[in-house]
Design goal:
The structure holds 3 protein chains of 3 kinds.
Chain A: E1 10-13, H1 26-35, E2 42-46, E3 50-51, H2 58-75, E4 79-81, H3 100-104, E5 112-121, E6 124-133, E7 141-150, H4 153-171, E8 182-187, E9 194-199, E10 206-207, E11 215-220, E12 226-233, E13 236-243, E14 248-250, E15 259-264, E16 270-274, E17 281-285, E18 293-294, E19 302-307, E20 314-319, E21 326-331, E22 338-339, E23 345-351, E24 357-363, E25 375-380, E26 386-388, E27 396-401, E28 407-412, E29 419-424, E30 431-432, E31 439-444
Parallel strand pairs in A: 2-4, 2-5, 3-5
Antiparallel strand pairs in A: 5-6, 6-7, 8-9, 8-31, 9-10, 11-12, 12-13, 13-14, 15-16, 16-17, 17-18, 19-20, 20-21, 21-22, 23-24, 24-25, 25-26, 27-28, 28-29, 29-30
Helix pairs in contact in A: 2-4
Chain B: H1 2-29, E1 45-51, E2 54-56, E3 61-68, E4 72-75, E5 79-81, E6 85-89, E7 95-103, E8 106-117, H2 126-139, E9 143-144, H3 157-169, E10 174-180, H4 187-207, E11 215-221, H5 232-238, E12 240-246
Parallel strand pairs in B: 2-8, 10-11
Antiparallel strand pairs in B: 1-3, 3-6, 4-5, 4-7, 7-8, 9-12, 10-12
Chain C: H1 2-7, H2 10-42, H3 51-61, H4 64-76, H5 88-93, H6 99-106, H7 109-118, H8 120-124, E1 151-157, H9 163-166, H10 168-180, E2 197-204, E3 209-216, H11 221-232, E4 248-256
Antiparallel strand pairs in C: 1-4, 2-3, 2-4
Helix pairs in contact in C: 4-7
The chains are: A mainly beta, B alpha+beta, C alpha+beta.
Chain lengths: 447, 247, 259
């Protein structure tokens, strides 16, 4: 493979780039570059890990591990995962057992192979995992990892997430995987609307608040230390904080009036909607609750701000100042107001991590008496070009980007009740994450 | 001569044919356009409201309902009733009243929920408060809004004036105006719109002479709807500023 | 007229008169018959359906068909390294290079036709919408890898010359990232073919590209600039493999553009 005809210092081998020349092809470019979903998916096979010890707990833990690893790689959006039915009968548990030709020729036809072993000893589980480049028999190893933790299903799941994230990071051009990220949401299954959290794939759904009131709009801080939300008190809606460092609610200044929809900037400030001085307008305050200043000054109602996560210099929000709610952007000091949507009913904007896109819920054809056909849209802010992501699937709202910029989590009424779904940022691979009670307003962690 | 005769005959026949065809064509033209829908096929409409919808045990509330195109109207727990009317009821526990309106065009139903909370706070002479609260329930009306609007429409002005008058007559009463929205649209935007609606009602009352410090505002958006059907009647029912008696 | 006509032979006017009356009768009968029968055929349809909805429907349904043709191309060309047949080594390394150029030549016409087909659509769209299916699924009609006659190559320097063989997975990630970030519309659409452009850049330890330079221009400024921008647009390729001991890797990148 390395027999270069030029000097040994230089080794040119051509990796061809084939580029489309249709002028209309420019239309799709911005989605491709912006979401990193790209064109060429790596064909990867995740072999079932083999047991390395004789412990009876191995079987269940192996099943959890293998399922989680496959799901994580499949969900990543950049892989073409080889179906398990194409796997050769012999699966390797050690590098010496890898049969390159069996995996790289049809039917599996894989370019990459993840394999390894898992074994329980006493109460600890130990996992070894490798990622091999099947096209490079001379030096195939891309990753070699070893993990050890207590022998529980949760720990094994976390190990699988970590290993999947490593693979995604290496092969995905340096963008971290989302397998260890969390989603915060509102659920009414306890009888009241409270703030809950879960893993990005819907596992481990846990209740955080027990306020017995109505708590809405959870938004996690950039460092995942606190979740801000809005809750109904006797005197009005107030912004409240739940701390993960202390695992309980922490105090936060009360302002009076209706204080709604908090949103974090990358440097820890909070934008929110407040009616403390009259009509609901957009305000910004420090993450501690101090130094609140007003950004918009109109009858509004102005609500649902979202920061440009890349620069922290712009805020998009919803305003009903012209009638039906429309989306606007402004600089973080309230100047340079620009209108983004021209018609219909547009709400719930969320800015992508790379600063390029807004996703929002939009009813474009609007008429009184219409029961509501809100669909999710993706818009390139610079060019104002947009793409519709959901179609004919009931009311969809509250889209939120994943930190890798490739996924969107949202709420949808398509099954008859409000549930939370995730999908790739091009609208494919829709997966239902919740099913109990009514679940709304999901928010994805930043890392 | 014969030629001329033949021409005239042909002419008359032609005229006759034209006249004949015109008559017949005109005749047949009539049934061609589709007939308008017969009025008796229209779906009945129904709306039911309880005022006030939160009471203390032992108090009563007034159910008010309106129906159109219905021949057979009944309310669960009460029995058959007039197509439109009102009735005072005294439920012992929280009840959802269910009205069913049947007509030739179909059936429509409407619900109204009455929440019965525990006995009134101690320390106040019950008879006085009950009376004032009953009066409040009888005379103070909620203000209804158009879709996505927070301005008081002309048809609601009488209610506003009536409410302001009552509040000026009973100058010790404090109230909270709660803003509500119908189920369509987004949670967050509706909370903000509800805020504007509550403020609009408060401003209207203040302009009519009620002291502003007697009026608090709150917004529920679409969080605590009065009814849950996906019909225009229920949506209008929910788009309101709701005046709540505060002690 | 009638008086004048009577001075002539009356017969000469009778025939035209008969024709006139006959045609009038015939026309009137036709109009009446038309009015009688045609409304009964179309009357039910007038009220139903809005013009607006029909408009909306065609926007969505008419477009994906050409797009799916593009989709087929993409599936074939996932191993995009294939066009490097001018270099002997890659042919050994990636045997699937050989069949792909054949498919590419066959499908060369398709992007052209679909391009012309698609040109009017953005103008029709006063609302900036990318029709569904065109901006759609990642494996779908981005049309990026359908053959269009452009090919390029990478070379990695540093580390004793064997970076590419030891870390081919990293090279592939770099190639994918650059192709993803290439915005073709930045190249002047009037250009049909250009000389090879050479661009060099370094990849630092943390994966950040730096020092992007045109080593040899293609002679077409928009092509040169679009090549540089593709790389400058990238934040990171991912950190260099830990097994690689160097501080950075130099990449020489060449690109042939051909419509």
């Amino acid at each position: 493979m390395s027999n270069s005809t030029r000097s040994s210092r230089y080794f040119i081998f051509a990796v061809a780039l084939i580029l489309v020349l249709a002028t209309a092809g420019s239309a799709q470019d911005w989605i491709r570059t912006g979401t990193g979903l790209g064109m060429e998916k790596v064909r990867i096979a995740a072999a079932d890990f083999k047991p390395s010890t004789q412990d009876p707990k191995n079987a269940d833990l192996l099943k959890t591990f293998n399922d989680t690893l496959s799901n994580d790689l499949d969900n990543a959006g950049i892989f073409d995962l080889v179906s398990k039915s194409f796997h050769p009968l012999q699966t390797p548990g050690q590098p010496s057992e890898v049969n390159f030709s069996a995996w790289s020729s049809p039917p599996p036809n894989a370019a990459m192979l993840a394999f390894g072993n898992l074994g329980v000893t006493a109460d600890k589980v130990s996992v070894q995992g490798w990622l091999y480049d099947l096209k490079n028999q001379a030096s195939p190893q891309v990753l070699a990892k070893q993990y050890s933790d207590s022998a529980t299903a949760d720990a094994v799941r976390t190990i699988a997430h970590k290993f999947a994230d490593e693979i995604i990071f290496r092969l995905g051009g340096g963008v971290a995987g989302i397998a260890e990220t969390k989603i915060y949401f509102v659920s009414d299954r306890s009888g009241h609307k409270e703030i809950w959290m879960m893993d990005y794939d819907g596992e481990n759904q846990t209740q955080l608040t027990h306020l017995g009131s109505i708590s809405l709009s959870p938004r996690i801080s950039p460092d995942s230390s606190r979740v801000a939300f809005s809750s109904a008190t006797k005197s009005g809606w107030e912004i409240m904080m739940y701390s993960f460092d202390l695992n309980r609610m922490v105090s936060f200044p009360r302002f009076g009036g209706m204080n709604l929809s908090p949103s974090w900037s990358p440097d820890g400030k909070i934008a929110f909607s407040s009616s403390r001085n009259g009509y609901p307008n957009i305000y910004v305050m420090e993450g501690s609750g101090g130094n609140a200043r007003r950004l918009t000054n109109d009858q509004g109602p102005d609500v649902s701000p979202t920061w440009n996560r890349k620069t922290g210099a712009q805020i998009a929000f919803v305003s009903g100042r012209t009638g039906l709610p429309q989306i606007y952007t402004m600089d973080a000091d309230g100047t340079n107001l620009q209108r983004v949507t021209e018609q219909g009913y547009a709400v719930s904007p969320n800015w992508s991590p790379n600063g390029q896109f807004l996703t929002f819920s939009w009813m474009r054809k609007y008429g009184p008496g219409d029961p509501g056909g809100n669909d999710l849209y993706l818009m390139d802010i610079a060019s104002k070009q947009w793409v519709q992501l959901t179609h004919d699937a009931g009311r969809n709202d509250f889209p939120c980007w994943s930190p890798d910029g490739r996924h969107i989590v949202f709420q949808s009424h398509r099954t008859g009740s409000d549930q939370i779904f995730s999908m790739l940022a091009d609208g494919t691979h829709v997966k239902q994450l919740t099913s109990k009670g009514g679940n709304t307003q999901p928010n994805w962690s930043w890392k | 001569m014969k030629h001329q005769m033949r021409m005239w005959v042909l002419f008359v026949v032609a005229l006759g044919a034209v006249a004949f065809l015109a008559a017949c064509g005109g005749h047949r033209k009539l049934p061609a356009p589709p007939p308008p829908a017969p009025p008796e096929a229209q779906l009945p409409t129904a709306s039911l409201a309880a005022n006030p919808n939160t009471i203390n045990a032992g108090e009563s509330t007034t159910l008010t309902w309106q129906t159109t195109n219905a021949t057979d109207v009944s309310i669960d727990g009460i029995g058959p009733v007039d197509p439109s009317g009102s009735r005072q009821v005294t439920p012992a526990t929280s009840t959802t009243y269910h009205l069913i309106a049947k007509g030739a065009g179909g059936t429509q139903d409407a619900t109204a929920r009455v929440t019965v909370s525990a006995a009134p706070a101690a320390g106040q002479p019950p008879a006085e408060n009950l009376t004032e609260q009953e009066l409040f329930a009888k005379n103070v009306r909620d203000i209804y809004f158009d879709y996505d609007k927070a301005d008081i429409r002309a048809s609601e002005q009488p209610s506003v004036q009536g409410d302001a008058q009552f509040l000026q007559q009973h100058s010790s009463i404090h109230i909270t105006v709660e803003g509500y929205c119908d189920e369509r649209g987004s949670t967050e935007y509706n909370l903000a719109l509800g805020t504007n609606r509550a403020d609009a009602v408060k401003n209207a009352l203040v302009q009519a002479g009620v002291a502003g410090d007697r009026i608090k505002t709150f917004s529920y958006g679409k969080e605590k709807p009065f009814c849950t059907q996906s019909t225009e009647a229920c949506w209008q029912e929910n788009r309101r500023g709701h005046l709540v008696y505060e002690k | 007229m009638a008086a004048a006509a009577s001075e002539f032979e009356s017969s000469s006017l009778r025939r035209p008169l008969a024709w006139s009356v006959g045609l009038h009768v015939g026309f009137t009968a036709f109009v009446i018959l038309y009015a009688m029968f045609v409304p009964s055929l179309r009357g039910q349809g007038w009220g139903a359906g809005g013009g607006g909805e029909a408009m909306g429907a065609t926007l969505v349904t008419s477009v994906p068909l050409p797009a799916s043709a593009e989709q087929t191309n993409n599936v074939l060309a996932t191993e995009s390294k294939g066009l490097a047949h001018s270099e002997p080594k890659p042919v050994e390394k990636e045997p699937e290079a050989i069949p792909i150029p054949d498919k590419n030549t066959k499908t060369k016409q398709k992007p052209v036709t679909t391009a012309t087909q698609r040109k009017p659509e953005p103008e029709r769209e006063e609302t900036n919408q990318i029709p569904y299916g065109e901006g759609g699924p990642a494996s779908g009609p981005y049309t990026m890898f359908s053959a269009g006659g452009a090919k390029g190559g990478f070379g990695f320097t540093g580390g004793g010359g064997d970076f590419g063989s030891r870390f081919s997975w990293y090279v592939q990630a770099v190639q994918r990232k650059v192709s993803e970030n290439w915005l073709k519309y930045e190249v002047d659409p009037g250009i049909r073919e250009a000389n090879r452009v050479y661009v060099t850049f370094d990849i630092a330890r943390d994966g950040h590209p730096a020092n992007v330079q045109i080593e040899q221009s293609s002679g077409v400024p928009s092509l040169d600039i679009s090549a540089m921008r593709a790389i400058q647009r990238i934040d990171t390729f991912g950190p260099l493999p830990p097994e690689y001991s160097g501080n950075k890797v130099s990449v020489e990148f060449w690109f042939d553009y051909k419509r």
